[in-house]
């Protein structure tokens, strides 16, 4: 048993260094979206991410799991440079998208975020109407030029987010008047309205009830046809249900990156196995 | 497929410029506020610092019988009009207090006339050419110079600028603030303790709370009307007295003390109260022995800030008559008195240009005291600040 | 003088009685306890209870008597009043000592009294508001008995000069009668307030935006106290600054561009008042901007908004109720500001839209009416209270609206935190 795990571990480690999953998911798309190599991050003196290398594939759901404080959210926020907002953060290593290092000085972080959208743990609709919440960003980005176009885009985004039928009669009520689950779908609609390539989701269902959670999980499954979705979750069942690939983080290190089915049925590292079977977390 | 980074960046250029403009604009606004402050202080220092110096001339003073009757005779004719009249007028009294002076003649540095003072400071002066030449000659001989102005700190108000000082106003301020403190501190702390520790959450309590916030925002001049109508007309407190001024200011300071005391009480964690209740203390014992001592630094800080505010207040005091001309230091809280800001106000209204520097000098003294008080409050807060 | 000595004597005797009460109460309690009887409270608490029983009613009787004398004008000789109080004190002492029994809850009794005293202190703030209201309204009513309310509100001429003659019953002697039309005063007040707001709101709000959104931590820690210094400068000092420094500069500048400005122009007090209010707006705005949850900013930034757009379109609109509320408070403060206008604005009621002319304000006229050598009963003196009443009503309304708005703002972000 121990021998077996040790053997799997060495296999896992060696293939991890290339950033590739240990076992490939045959149903998944394997065009590269984001390539990360030797990513290190410090908050002041403490190192929060250690030598992360990972390849994220387009039009998939990739789940990041691990005990709290393992660096999964921090890693997620490296992908659209939201960590820039925190004082005293230092980043080394490569995060490559579309052939460009997102951390290079020439890279405009606003342009990056335009292509890498984000949905947060707590729904954070703007204090504007439902319509404005969705229409605001496309208008600012000049994605629409006429009112009719804008209406169309708002409707499409709300439909894609599965919210249209619930809000079509009250588009001009404040976004904050919706329920928690609806607010979160509004935030998703807001994110997809700017037509990004990648959507980052930071524990998007942790503040929601089980029914809203199920709705959003279904939504992720639909949205992956258009977008690359990377989601952080503390809920392993959720990762098992929605993700094509799963990455397990522990104490700032990427321990295992694998096809989701393999990760949950036959993890290649002992730490991942212990976590998944509930020995800690 | 979506746009590339470079395409998006190109579109963003204009938006980034606008964003940068907002940043510079907001920075400029803060800079402007800072600039106002710098200009203000430079102006006050420039106008007020000369007030701390006063022209004196060395003359031969003859202490004779005649000069006791007619003080003008005490100094030589050639410098008579350059010596302060006000100082001359004090001669007879000085001779009465010191009889041994009689019959002697001494070389002394005496206060120069206010116009000489202004001339030496390079300001506008009413001295004619001959007088100016005389002053120049005295300066040549080393018999006229600007010396530190002790008069300004030791004497009361005067119609003659060279004799005007802030002492009586300062004492008036001290007495007024003592009354204010004696009234507003206990009432303020008791109110805060009641609202924070005892009051049931009912309509009356809410009304009291709204009322306190509202009191803090009522124009100060209306407190003056209250002082005039209630304290003076109704209760018969003497007009212009530190008592009525102090009471009026106390009502104004009350909300500041209440609000800061409540904040201080609220910052004492409930675990302390629970622990004290747990060992069998009654509510009052909990407050007296455990909560109040921990909240004390915060209460002190708030009180100092409240007093500093009261110290700079003028409008209500004018209404209750504390702008009187007070040359001597008042003896008790029921005598007519004036306070520093009111003295500044009176001097600012004097037509004589020499009073401009007195006014600015008084302002510098007032500002120094206020800054010292606020700094004390900040230090106190820093020193005792505790994070629970 | 005699009253003072009497009062001193009274206090001395009362103190003595209190001391006696303390020791008697404690001694009795200690004896009971020593005899082995369990008591509800500590001996010291019984002692304090007897002191309260002695002094409390006596002081109450004295205060009541004094109040009756002042309020109803009844003549009660001070000597009798004080002697009566002392008798009450003696009775209280006997009753108090008698109450020192094992089954008496001395501690609860004391606590009840303390609670009562504290509540009484809390009521003083209510009395203050009523005092202001009462004093202003009662005098204002007397003014409106002499001059019509309608004329006061709509009249455009303020000329109180002849009112002392009317007070002397010789109204006919004066060529012109006194006129109390307050419109020019309010026009002047609003003009100066408007100028102040035009300075304070943009500068204060933008400073707050810089400090809360852009400034590095060290700039912020430096700038906040600097702005607080601006807030701590007494208004009389600002008034001097406006009159001596700013007004001449404005006259010079206006002269240079061919305009004529009065030395008592409305611009100087307006600008200086604006400077005074900057820290007020900036610190309140800073608070509300900081209260906008960070998740709002992150939400906008994550959509590819620039920082400026995030601030303009998300942060400021979210903080808007708070900013408006701060501005209303600032307006209320500018309307009631006295020293700056008394020292730098004019005395002449002048209905004009030109800020370079001299104008007067409500507060200036209040001060003018109450510092002259007028009799208290004259219409001019009483007009100050009528003006004060309007000022009170306007500022009270502004304050209440502002409080309600800020409360709504806080609640909004509390409920949104799911």
TrEMBL record, chain A:
<dbReference type="GO" id="GO:0005524">
    <property type="term" value="F:ATP binding"/>
</dbReference>
<feature type="region of interest" description="Disordered">
    <location>
        <begin position="1"/>
        <end position="24"/>
    </location>
</feature>
<keyword id="KW-0547">Nucleotide-binding</keyword>
<feature type="domain" description="ABC transporter">
    <location>
        <begin position="34"/>
        <end position="276"/>
    </location>
</feature>
<dbReference type="Pfam" id="PF00005">
    <property type="entry name" value="ABC_tran"/>
</dbReference>
<keyword id="KW-0813">Transport</keyword>
<dbReference type="InterPro" id="IPR027417">
    <property type="entry name" value="P-loop_NTPase"/>
</dbReference>
<keyword id="KW-0592">Phosphate transport</keyword>
<dbReference type="InterPro" id="IPR017871">
    <property type="entry name" value="ABC_transporter-like_CS"/>
</dbReference>
<dbReference type="InterPro" id="IPR003593">
    <property type="entry name" value="AAA+_ATPase"/>
</dbReference>
<protein>
    <submittedName>
        <fullName>Phosphate import ATP-binding protein PstB</fullName>
    </submittedName>
</protein>
<feature type="compositionally biased region" description="Basic and acidic residues">
    <location>
        <begin position="1"/>
        <end position="10"/>
    </location>
</feature>
<dbReference type="InterPro" id="IPR003439">
    <property type="entry name" value="ABC_transporter-like_ATP-bd"/>
</dbReference>
<keyword id="KW-0067">ATP-binding</keyword>
<dbReference type="InterPro" id="IPR005670">
    <property type="entry name" value="PstB-like"/>
</dbReference>
From TrEMBL, chain B:
<feature type="transmembrane region" description="Helical">
    <location>
        <begin position="360"/>
        <end position="380"/>
    </location>
</feature>
<keyword id="KW-1003">Cell membrane</keyword>
<comment type="similarity">
    <text>Belongs to the binding-protein-dependent transport system permease family. CysTW subfamily.</text>
</comment>
<feature type="transmembrane region" description="Helical">
    <location>
        <begin position="215"/>
        <end position="237"/>
    </location>
</feature>
<feature type="domain" description="ABC transmembrane type-1">
    <location>
        <begin position="170"/>
        <end position="376"/>
    </location>
</feature>
<dbReference type="InterPro" id="IPR000515">
    <property type="entry name" value="MetI-like"/>
</dbReference>
<dbReference type="InterPro" id="IPR005672">
    <property type="entry name" value="Phosphate_PstA"/>
</dbReference>
<protein>
    <recommendedName>
        <fullName>Phosphate transport system permease protein PstA</fullName>
    </recommendedName>
</protein>
<dbReference type="Pfam" id="PF00528">
    <property type="entry name" value="BPD_transp_1"/>
</dbReference>
<keyword id="KW-0472">Membrane</keyword>
<dbReference type="InterPro" id="IPR024573">
    <property type="entry name" value="DUF3333"/>
</dbReference>
<keyword id="KW-0812">Transmembrane</keyword>
<feature type="transmembrane region" description="Helical">
    <location>
        <begin position="166"/>
        <end position="195"/>
    </location>
</feature>
<dbReference type="Pfam" id="PF11812">
    <property type="entry name" value="DUF3333"/>
</dbReference>
<feature type="transmembrane region" description="Helical">
    <location>
        <begin position="243"/>
        <end position="265"/>
    </location>
</feature>
Automatic annotation (TrEMBL), chain C:
<comment type="similarity">
    <text>Belongs to the binding-protein-dependent transport system permease family. CysTW subfamily.</text>
</comment>
<feature type="domain" description="ABC transmembrane type-1">
    <location>
        <begin position="186"/>
        <end position="402"/>
    </location>
</feature>
<keyword id="KW-0813">Transport</keyword>
<feature type="transmembrane region" description="Helical">
    <location>
        <begin position="231"/>
        <end position="259"/>
    </location>
</feature>
<feature type="transmembrane region" description="Helical">
    <location>
        <begin position="117"/>
        <end position="137"/>
    </location>
</feature>
<feature type="transmembrane region" description="Helical">
    <location>
        <begin position="266"/>
        <end position="285"/>
    </location>
</feature>
<feature type="transmembrane region" description="Helical">
    <location>
        <begin position="384"/>
        <end position="406"/>
    </location>
</feature>
<dbReference type="Pfam" id="PF00528">
    <property type="entry name" value="BPD_transp_1"/>
</dbReference>
<feature type="transmembrane region" description="Helical">
    <location>
        <begin position="79"/>
        <end position="97"/>
    </location>
</feature>
<protein>
    <recommendedName>
        <fullName>Phosphate transport system permease protein</fullName>
    </recommendedName>
</protein>
<keyword id="KW-1133">Transmembrane helix</keyword>
<feature type="transmembrane region" description="Helical">
    <location>
        <begin position="45"/>
        <end position="72"/>
    </location>
</feature>
<keyword id="KW-1003">Cell membrane</keyword>
<dbReference type="InterPro" id="IPR011864">
    <property type="entry name" value="Phosphate_PstC"/>
</dbReference>
<keyword id="KW-0472">Membrane</keyword>
């Amino acid at each position: 048993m121990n021998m077996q795990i040790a053997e799997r571990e060495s296999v896992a480690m060696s293939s991890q260094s290339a950033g590739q999953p240990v076992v490939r998911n045959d149903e998944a798309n394997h065009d590269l979206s984001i390539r990360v190599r030797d990513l290190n991050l410090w908050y002041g003196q403490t190192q929060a991410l250690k030598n992360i290398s990972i390849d994220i594939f387009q039009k998939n759901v990739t789940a990041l799991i691990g005990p709290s404080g393992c660096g999964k959210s921090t890693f997620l926020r490296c992908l659209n440079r939201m960590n820039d907002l925190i004082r005293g953060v230092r980043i080394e290593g490569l995060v490559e998208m579309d052939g460009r290092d997102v951390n290079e000085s020439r890279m405009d972080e606003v342009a990056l975020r335009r292509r890498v959208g984000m949905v947060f743990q707590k729904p954070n609709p703007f204090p504007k109407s439902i319509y404005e919440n969705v229409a605001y960003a496309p208008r600012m980005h000049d994605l629409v030029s006429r009112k009719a176009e804008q209406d169309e885009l708002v409707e499409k985004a709300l439909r894609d987010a599965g919210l249209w039928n619930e809000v079509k009669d009250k588009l001009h009520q404040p976004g904050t008047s919706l329920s928690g689950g609806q607010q979160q779908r509004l935030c998703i609609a807001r994110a997809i309205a700017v037509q990004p390539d990648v959507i980052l989701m930071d524990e998007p269902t942790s503040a929601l009830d089980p029914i809203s959670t199920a709705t959003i999980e279904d939504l992720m499954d639909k949205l992956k046809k258009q977008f690359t979705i990377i989601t952080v979750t503390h809920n392993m069942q959720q990762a098992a249900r929605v993700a094509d690939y799963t990455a397990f983080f522990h104490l700032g290190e990427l321990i295992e990156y694998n096809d989701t089915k393999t990760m949950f049925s036959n993890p290649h590292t002992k730490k991942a196995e212990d976590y998944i079977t509930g020995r800690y977390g | 497929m979506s746009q590339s980074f470079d395409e998006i960046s190109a579109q963003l250029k204009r938006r980034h410029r606008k964003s940068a403009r907002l940043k510079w604009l907001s920075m400029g606004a803060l800079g402007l506020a800072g600039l106002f402050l710098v200009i203000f202080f430079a102006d006050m220092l420039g106008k007020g610092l000369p007030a701390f110096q006063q022209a004196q001339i060395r003359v031969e003073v003859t202490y004779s019988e005649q000069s006791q009757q007619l003080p003008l005779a005490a100094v030589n004719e050639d410098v008579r009009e350059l010596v302060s009249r006000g100082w001359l007028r004090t001669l007879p009294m000085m001779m009465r207090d010191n009889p041994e002076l009689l019959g002697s003649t001494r070389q002394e540095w005496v206060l120069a006339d206010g116009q000489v003072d202004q001339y030496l400071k390079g300001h506008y002066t009413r001295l004619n050419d001959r007088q100016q030449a005389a002053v120049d000659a005295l300066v040549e001989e080393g018999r006229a110079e600007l010396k530190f102005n002790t008069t300004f700190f030791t004497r009361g108000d005067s119609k003659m600028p060279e004799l005007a000082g802030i002492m009586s106003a300062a004492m008036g301020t001290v007495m007024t603030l003592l009354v204010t403190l004696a009234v507003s501190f206990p009432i303020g702390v008791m109110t805060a303790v009641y609202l924070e520790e005892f009051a049931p959450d009912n309509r009356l309590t809410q009304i009291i709370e709204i009322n306190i916030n509202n009191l803090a925002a009522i124009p100060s001049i209306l407190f003056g009307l209250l002082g005039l109508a209630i304290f003076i007309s109704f209760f018969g407190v003497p007009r212009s007295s530190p008592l009525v001024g102090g009471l009026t200011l106390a009502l104004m300071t009350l909300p500041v003390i209440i609000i800061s005391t409540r904040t201080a009480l609220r910052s004492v964690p409930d675990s302390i109260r629970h622990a004290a209740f747990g060992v069998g203390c009654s509510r009052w014992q909990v407050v007296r022995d455990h909560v109040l001592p921990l909240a004390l630094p915060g209460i002190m800080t708030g009180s100092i800030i409240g007093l500093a505010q009261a110290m700079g207040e003028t409008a209500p005091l004018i209404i209750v008559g504390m702008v009187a001309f007070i040359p001597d230091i008042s003896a008790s809280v029921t005598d007519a008195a004036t306070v520093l800001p009111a003295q500044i106000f009176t001097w600012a209204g004097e037509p004589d240009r020499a009073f401009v520097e007195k006014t600015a000098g008084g302002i510098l003294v007032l500002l120094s005291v206020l800054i010292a008080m606020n700094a004390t409050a900040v230090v106190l807060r820093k020193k005792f600040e505790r994070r629970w | 003088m005699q009253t003072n000595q009497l009062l001193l004597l009274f206090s001395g005797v009362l103190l003595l009685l209190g001391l006696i009460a303390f020791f008697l109460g404690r001694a009795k309690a200690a004896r009971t306890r020593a005899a082995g009887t369990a008591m509800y409270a500590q001996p010291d608490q019984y002692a304090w209870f007897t002191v309260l029983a002695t002094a409390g009613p006596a002081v109450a009787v004295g205060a009541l008597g004094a109040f009756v004398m002042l309020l109803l004008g009844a003549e009660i000789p001070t000597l009798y009043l004080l002697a009566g109080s002392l008798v009450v004190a003696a009775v209280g002492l006997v009753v108090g000592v008698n109450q020192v029994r094992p089954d008496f809850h001395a501690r609860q009794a004391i606590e009840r009294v303390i609670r009562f005293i504290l509540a009484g202190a809390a009521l003083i703030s209510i009395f203050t508001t009523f005092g202001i209201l009462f004093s202003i309204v009662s005098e204002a009513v007397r003014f409106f008995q002499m001059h019509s309310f309608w004329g006061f509100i709509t009249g455009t001429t303020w000329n109180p000069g002849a009112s002392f003659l009317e007070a002397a019953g010789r109204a006919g002697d004066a060529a012109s009668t006194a006129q109390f039309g307050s419109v020019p005063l309010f026009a002047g007040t609003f003009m100066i307030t408007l100028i102040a707001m035009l300075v304070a709101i943009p500068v204060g709000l933008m400073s707050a935006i810089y400090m809360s959104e852009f400034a590095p931590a060290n700039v912020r820690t430096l700038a906040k106290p600097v702005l607080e210094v601006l807030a701590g400068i007494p208004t009389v000092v600002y008034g001097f600054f406006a009159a001596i420094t700013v007004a001449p500069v404005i006259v010079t500048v206006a002269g240079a561009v061919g305009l004529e400005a009065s030395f008592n122009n409305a611009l100087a007090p307006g600008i200086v008042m604006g400077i005074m209010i900057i820290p007020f707006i900036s610190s309140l705005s800073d608070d509300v901007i900081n209260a906008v949850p960070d998740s709002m900013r992150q939400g906008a930034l994550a959509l590819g908004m620039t920082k400026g757009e995030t601030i303009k379109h998300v942060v400021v609109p979210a903080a808007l109720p708070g900013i408006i509320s701060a501005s209303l408070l600032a307006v209320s403060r500018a309307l009631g500001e006295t020293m700056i206008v008394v020292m730098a604005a004019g005395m002449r009621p002048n209905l004009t839209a030109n800020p370079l002319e001299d104008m007067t304000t409500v507060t200036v006229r209040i001060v003018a009416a109450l510092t002259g050598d007028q009799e208290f009963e004259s219409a001019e003196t009483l007009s100050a209270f009528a003006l004060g009443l309007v000022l009170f009503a306007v500022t009270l309304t502004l304050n209440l609206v502002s409080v309600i708005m800020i409360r709504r703002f806080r609640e909004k972000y509390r409920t949104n935190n799911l």
